[in-house]
Amino acid sequence: MNMGVELEATQSVVDEKLIYVKVHMPFEVLCTYAEVLHIKLPIKPNDLAPQSSTYNCFTRHFYPSEDVIAKEPEFFTAPFRKDQLKCFFVKDKEQFFTPAMRSRMAYYILSRAPYEVRGNVKKFGFNKLLDGGVYKAAYPLHDCRFNVKSKEPSCPNERFLLFNEWAHPKSFYKMQPLDLIRKYFGEKIGIYFAWLGFYTVMLTLAAAVGLCCFIYGYTTRESSTWSKEVCDPQIGGEIIMCPQCDKICPYWRLNSTCESSKVSSQTHRSTASPLEDCGIWYDLCLPSVVGVIVYRLAMFITFSSNLHSHLNNRKELEPFKEYVTPQMATSITASFISLIIIMILNNVYEKVAILITDFELPRTKTEYENSLTLKMFLFQFVNYYSSCFYIAFFKGKVVGYPGEPVYWLGTFRNEECDPGGCLTELTTQLSIIMTGKAIWNNIQEVLLWLKNLMFRHCTQVSSEKVIPRWEQDYQLQPMGKLGLFYEYLEMVIQFGFVTLFVASFPLAPLLALFNNLCEIRIDAWKYTTQSRRAVPEKAQDIGAWQPILQGVAILAVATNAAIIAFTSDMIPRLVYYWAFSVSPYSGGSEHTMAGYINSSLSVFNISHFIEMKRPNEEITPYWFNNITTCRYRDFRHPPGHPNQYDFSIYYWHVIAAKLAFMIVLEHIVYFTKFILSYMIPDVPEALKEQIKRERYLTQVILHETNIQHFKELMKPIADNLQSEIEEPELDLKV
């Protein structure tokens, strides 16, 4: 590659097949390309007084000691201009440009340097040489070893400081040294860890609220009227429920769901709080979703007919009899199958998204990353959340009634929820997928470490030879072309789980908090010890991920409102308490929840079963004698009514209340968000003052520089005029 006079290169020959080329940039070249890239550099120390508060007195205990990591001095900065070098704060030429700036400028030159010219065809950019195998790798060098402290106090080992004060497990409670991270790795990685830290702080607040809701729901589940009535042998034990599938499902007593009703009651209480290239590729998601639904329908029939007999025949499983229901067994097994399918399809969707983006031929790297980000997120959104959306908003919603059930694909009878609702099943699905995803990601990190260890072992040389830094770094894992893309994607998917379905699983923020506390340190350990130093990139924000996060947050308001309104039983209970527990719908004069179980279950005459759907006599329970009706979860008129099996007035009251609740809650949340956005500025006042001061100083320096340049141009003319004028008393000055 022809690098001209811009870069200085030295070679290190390891063997005949492997040669290292070390590239260095002289100061003059650095100045030239700092101006080309509009890099901001210090012009004057910041003379604005720092603002202190009682909050800082509390948080300073969680920051690394300034004796270990010295606080970076603050400067007013301006885009660099080579002809105005004297205006910038140059204390030491060797330290004026940080290593991250040097690496960024070297990458800029190498990515545009020509390496072959044939006629009018000009080939340039070392990335093509890397893809073609001419070069095996290209990377900036780490400073020193990560586990050796510098012996010179004036020149600290920044890699060691980052490992010891950031990546080490003992620092899990400390704030991140963001200035040092940005200085060592560049702006883009610094912004990522700043965003990740802020997100983790917000998770701490959400986890505290969710934990309080969970504890409240757990401590009051035994006292809830719903669970008391379900578990009471005189109430729930006397209510006979209709079969939930055709022919092979038996009648069952309501109190057989006693334990799951307690969990459901706990969950209800805790919830009181145009890509056309993709209309084809998203069809890949549908078969997996439909396949899991069909599995659920088929396995529910199997568990309904065989589960209780297996539990009764095996004494070692007797303690689990009260907890294991056909719905729970189906939910758990389907959740694990969904997790496996999700992990498999992740790789498929990744390749499809990259293929589509490459086919589009974006003009710039930023456009490429933004296009790929949107596609990958949409694929992952469908992949991860489709099963949760099915349970939350579709399961048990269109099931008909025992006499005329609704069928999937004309064969499988649609699933019904437990008498207490589908929230317990949704919580199970979320916990299994979230936990399984976190475990799988950590397994991948361990495999990366093992791979790195094996690579080092295979490429190690005799201990007598001192291995130079570039050879040590070559043994580390490359960063990959997409850089932080997968780190952001992982966190955004987690953000979706935490926000979209938090009403059904209040512990989701707590699990995410534990995961992120580990994730920050694992990523820090990976960047400082296991990976080659990343090529620094300029960044002002998190890019295309910001509108995606905003969209998820807006959608989360609607999904949680819908979960509370349509998936939980909170609204039907409130409607019963305030309207149907007193006159004229009831004989009582005081509002109460007593009798809610009876009002929430409709009646079906078993003689109305057609022969093809009637339960087989051999599976009819022994206690099922002289019983003419069974109950099912819905609000319909009883048999014998002029409008039998049609929706009752209770149903329409509940629907109206659900819609009203959803609309009111959304407006309250959005209005609160608007007020907070208005009250809390995007840019703090102190930073606004610093920006104004920076602009003013830049203008002053540019003005003074132009005047000085004009003086230098006019000085020879003034000297000539002075010498030609005879009067000595006349003094010409510019």
TrEMBL record:
Major subcellular location class: membrane
This protein's UniProt keywords: Cell membrane, Glycoprotein, Membrane, Transmembrane, Transmembrane helix
Alphabetized InterPro entries for the sequence: Anoct_dimer, Anoctamin, Anoctamin_TM
Stretches assigned to the Anoctamin transmembrane domain: 181-220, 284-694
Gene Ontology molecular function terms on file: chloride channel activity; protein dimerization activity
Family (UniProt): Belongs to the anoctamin family.
Protein name: Anoctamin
